[in-house]
Design brief:
Blueprint lengths: L1 E3 L9 H14 L7 H5 L6 H8 L5 H20 L11 H10 L4 E4 L4 H11 L7 E3 L11 H10 L7 E4 L2 H10 L2 E5 L6 H6 L4 E3 L2 H15 L2 H4 L3
Helix pairs in contact: 1-4, 3-4
Length: 228
């Protein structure tokens, strides 16, 4: 089974997430964050992420910041010219893995509304067998949403890989006993991913596919595949 993060892994949302964080800060009259402030917390559920970024703010202010962040994204998506591109090779790799019989999961810090929007926009309803997000339980790096993916499809941890761009993804995978693959093109650096426990670093989707092809025979048995 292959479980994917979304922002920074499949979709290049670096600019839009930073823009939303800055606009939301201005909306509630607090100092705007730097890009490094924002990139450090991407992948964690939004309220927890903003609280992590701004520990000086009380819960009421964090709630307001969260609301304004969400409103910023609603405005972005209401603009017909708004676009967040897929990383080169993402679509082809997802489709190839699915065609080869991989079980496909999603573990993202997005809301359920965001997951639904993403799946519908990219036509991924036939690609992902399971999708779990920040609305489903504890935030990354807690292993909950990854464990939910495994349990939903009856997959053992040693049969799965978690692919993500953030240290939170790597720590979540290690906590769940799942192989952690870090991608170098997202929010966190290679050094940060390795320090967080990445088992492997890949630098593009071609390299990821080669690595997964080598892992596939032990990732999913024919007996288990036949059940789905």
């Amino acid at each position: 089974m292959a479980v994917f993060d979304v922002d920074g892994t499949l979709i290049d949302s670096r600019s839009s997430i930073f823009r939303a964080a800055v606009e939301a800060a201005h909306a509630i009259n607090i100092s705007p964050p730097s890009y490094d402030d924002v990139r450090a917390i991407v992948g964690v559920s939004l309220f927890d992420a903003l609280a992590m970024m701004r520990p000086d703010l009380d819960n009421e202010t964090i709630a307001a910041y969260t609301h304004e962040f969400q409103q910023a994204f609603l405005r972005f998506h209401a603009d017909p010219s708004f676009a967040e591109s897929l990383y080169l090779g993402a679509e082809e790799t997802l489709r190839a893995l699915k065609a080869e019989g991989w079980l496909m999961g999603m573990a993202t810090g997005n809301s359920r509304r965001g997951v639904t929007r993403t799946v519908e926009k990219h036509g991924w309803s036939d690609v992902f067998d399971t999708t779990f997000c920040a609305d489903d339980g504890p935030s990354k790096p807690h292993p909950h949403m990854l464990q939910c993916n495994l349990e939903a499809l009856g997959v053992d941890p040693h049969e799965a890989v978690m692919i993500g761009d953030a240290t939170h993804d790597m720590r979540m995978a290690r906590s769940a006993g799942v192989t952690a693959i870090g991608v170098s093109w997202g929010f966190h650096t290679v050094e940060e991913l390795l320090a967080a426990g990445a088992d492997q670093i890949v630098h593009d989707f071609t390299e990821l596919k080669v690595w997964l092809d080598a892992f596939e025979p032990q990732a999913l048995s024919e007996q288990k595949r036949a059940r789905y």
